[in-house]
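Quarterly update from the structural biology core.
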Amino acid sequence: MQHPDTYFYSRKFLLLASSLLLLSLPALAQDVFLKSGINATTYDFREKGGVRITNFLPASGASYELGIDLPFRTFEDSTFLFAKQVKNQVSFTLEELNGISGSKTTSYRSETRFAGLSNRISVLGVAGPLEIGITGVLGASTLLSGVETINNSVVDLRKAPEFNGLFLRTGLGVTTAYLRPNNARFSLSYEYVSQSRLSRKFDDRLRFLTHNILFGVHLPLN
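Predicted structure, tokenized:
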């Protein structure tokens, strides 16, 4: 049985972490950005022995981020592979991670919203006004709301232990950006992200495997 305070403490942890970031990081930031896009998510739901419980199909949802760009390092010597810059982004995330499955007699759909914190390191090459590079993602998220519909029966997923607690977000991606003369930037990125529950006290294991496409607007702070 799920501990009754799991949902509460997960949200409390993220709220505290978010408050610390809001107080400490903006003074170091170079840009503020807003990203939005779409995702396709597949649930990977398995028993303790690794046997897949249900075969899920990819389901679409929306993704949003609000964050800041932090200066990290610039390479003046172009002999360092293709890299000219290493950038760090810290953001608050809001994602719809939905799932679809079913058979001849059963239809299943879940609709969830997860909020979290994300840290992104990008190694970028620069050619005139264009940036292009690879990205690594590390963060955490927790369930805000969710419902599960099996045929005509609806269940509140905040009471489902496999959907609660903190989820670790890890991923890789590619990104490109166009720098305008006023130092504003427009970015387009693709990322493949896996989210797994940190606690292992339940037999069932749930992962979210997500393809994200995000468009961003970055505005300078000075």
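The two ends are 51 Å apart (CA to CA).
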